[in-house]
Design goal:
Low-confidence stretches: 1-9, 20-40
Structural class: mainly alpha
Helix content: over 70%
Number of strands: 0
Shape: rod-shaped
Largest sheet: none
Distance between the termini: 106 Å
Radius of gyration: 62 Å
Strand content: under 5%
């Protein structure tokens, strides 16, 4: 817990100091120097600063980078910080690669990969695999290296990490360029440019453009190469990138050298030297001096060439940069051979002899024996000259065989790449057709789903519509039933009112008849005057009791049941008015007792009348008379 707190606190300090550098205009390198000077040796923050230093010097000073990474590893071991150890191992491996020690480089990075896997650091693991793929592709197995790098593309695409994706394409392009698969190399570099464009990383973009230009130069497409170089030069000048300027000036000068425009070549080499001196990159400066001297030698400017070669040799450590050192010494010896200065030739040949064993390069060895045989010839030492010449011829034959083998390999590689390209095209076409078929299948499935859903929707809507109509119909039916019930109730109420009126009038008629009978009894006892008055009263009472009740009833009944009397008359024309009236009273659902009261008859009389009516209607014993009468409505 304490270690984690220290790490967090240290990270905050690093971030704070970097922020200060930007706020107060202090350069990052000055901030880094300040932190290095004030950090406690062996502390975690010191280790992180060492990693920053290692990352900074990997290419320009790999020895210094390796030393810084080693110090960080020691701190990681002290705190048992596996991630720190893995990062240090990775940087040591990258430094070993630039120090021409690929075996150690691969071992270190493989170790870091194992640590990253154990702590499940996916991003760091993938970054380490990029470096391992690059080293393997450049030193031992280019196909394996490219395959390893290509396997990481999907991961960084999913992460939208275009910086490292561009780096992968750069490494693939570099390996393809080294193996002379130039068309594929250019394609890879353009993919890298596409990635860097998305993030506006101009420095990386123009580095990729520089690689494209170098490929076109090797392919002797000088105009295209020069076009790219000029674009890069404009960028480096505008961005005040003196590191890039020096490299571009050197490349343009080398291009003009191949075009045999030596004056322009020298002009650009001078510019490259002037800019590279400001960078303090001694190795790069030595390369430029060496290239410049070659042009001066071609122009027969031997003194200038010797001066440039000596300048180049003075800038490097022959023990660590043996290849370049031997190359420069051979070039110097060739100048003295051209001047036929045997003493100087032997002096430099002896220097070469002490270094040549460090360099495992047949071309340099072949040049060495060629120059030796020529110097021996000048010394008239023909026997040794012949021996050296035989060694030279053997080496030369071996080189020619290797060149032939390389040419055959190039043809094979070209054939394989073309075949692979054709296979990829066929696979792409097949995938395209498969995608089209899948798309058609998906469209068909989608159409089926749409049709199915549409049918379901139509059926659901239809079902809902039917249900709604049924509901409306039921509601309307219920409403009609209610209205019919109301009408029936109104009809029954109207009929009941008629019956009540008939009863009232019958009661009133009975009362009047009783009064008339009493008046008649009184008139027998009175005089003529009284009799005359009583007769007038009786006459008036008789007039007011004219029986129109049944007329009103039948009129109202016929209005409500307009077809009843007609249908009854058609079926049973022999019925009497009294029997028809009885049918009407039965139809309005009056009992025999109620009918007797209305018609001023006895209950028995009504019962007898109903029996006779049944006979006339032709009804059987089980038939209900009211049901039969309702059928007449």
């Amino acid at each position: 817990m304490q270690h984690k707190s220290i790490k967090k606190f240290s990270l905050i300090i690093v971030f704070f100091l970097y922020c200060q550098s930007f706020i107060f205009g202090i350069e990052v390198k000055d901030t880094l120097l300040f932190m290095q000077q004030n950090a406690i040796p062996g502390s975690w923050i010191s280790a992180e600063l060492k990693l920053i230093e290692a990352r900074k010097y990997i290419e320009i000073n790999p020895e210094k980078a390796k030393k810084a990474a080693k110090a960080a590893e020691l701190t990681g071991n002290k705190y048992n910080d596996l991630k720190l150890i893995a990062s240090a191992k990775q940087y040591m491996g990258m430094a070993d690669f630039y120090l021409d020690n690929p075996v150690s480089a691969i071992a270190q990075i493989q170790h870091s990969i194992k640590i990253y896997e154990s702590i499940n650091e996916k991003k760091s693991l993938s970054l380490a695999k990029i470096e391992l793929g690059n080293i393997i592709g450049n030193t031992s197995d280019y196909q394996l290296g490219i395959s390893m790098l290509e396997s990481l593309i999907n991961y960084f695409e999913e992460e939208n990490d275009y910086t490292n994706l561009g780096k992968i394409y750069l490494y693939i392009g570099d390996i393809q360029k080294k193996e002379r698969i130039y068309n594929y190399a250019v394609e890879s570099f353009f993919k890298a440019i596409s990635c860097f464009d998305k993030l506006h990383q101009d420095a990386d973009k123009f580095y990729a453009m520089n690689e494209i230009a170098s490929v076109f130069k090797v392919m002797k497409q000088y105009k295209i190469a020069l076009k790219f170089y000029n674009q890069i030069l404009d960028y480096t000048v505008n961005s005040k990138n003196i590191y890039g300027q020096g490299a571009v000036f050197n490349n343009i000068a080398d291009l003009y050298k191949e075009l045999k425009d030596y004056d322009l070549a020298l002009e650009y080499f001078e510019k490259a030297i002037a800019v590279t001196k400001k960078t303090n990159l001694l190795y790069n400066l030595a390369v430029v001096y060496n290239n410049k001297a070659k042009v001066e030698f071609l122009l027969l400017k031997y003194n200038s060439a010797l001066h440039s070669y000596n300048e180049a040799f003075s800038l490097i450590n022959p023990e660590t940069k043996s290849f370049l050192a031997v190359n420069i010494l051979l070039n110097i010896t060739e100048v003295y051979l051209a001047e036929k200065n045997i003493v100087q030739c032997n002096h430099y040949l002896s220097m070469i002899k002490s270094l040549i064993s460090r360099v495992n390069d047949k071309k340099l060895l072949s040049r060495y024996y060629d120059i030796m045989s020529k110097v021996n010839m000048l010394e008239n030492n023909f026997k040794i000259a012949l021996e050296n010449r035989i060694i030279y011829e053997k080496l030369n034959d071996s080189l020619n065989y290797e060149v032939s083998y390389e040419q055959i390999s190039d043809i094979r590689i070209d054939y394989e790449t073309r075949l692979k390209k054709k296979e990829n095209e066929l696979l792409t076409a097949e995938n395209s057709n498969l995608k089209k078929n899948k798309l058609l299948l998906l469209v068909a499935i989608l159409l089926i789903i749409i049709v199915f859903v549409s049918v379901v929707i139509v059926l659901v809507l239809k079902y809902r519509n039917t249900k709604q109509k049924e509901l409306i119909f039921r509601q309307d039916t219920e409403l009609i039933k209610k209205e019919l019930l109301l009408l029936k109730d109104d009809h029954e109420i109207g009929q009941k009112e008629l019956v009540v009126n008939v009863l009232r009038e019958n009661i009133a008629k009975e009362s009047i008849n009783d009064i008339i009978e009493e008046l008649k009894s009184l008139s027998l006892k009175g005089n003529e005057s009284v009799k005359s008055s009583i007769k007038a009263v009786i006459k008036k009472l008789d007039k007011n009791t004219v029986d129109d009740t049944w007329e009103k009833f039948e009129k109202h009944f016929s209005k409500v049941n307009d077809r009843f009397y007609i249908n009854l008359q058609q079926k049973h024309p022999d019925l009497t008015p009294g029997e028809k009236r009885l049918c009407a009273l039965l139809l309005i659902n009056l009992s025999s007792k109620e009918i007797a009261a209305i018609t001023n008859q006895t209950f028995r009389s009504v019962t007898t009348a109903r029996y006779r009516l049944r006979q006339k209607l032709g009804l059987k014993h089980e038939d209900v008379i009211i049901t039969y009468l309702e059928s007449m409505k």
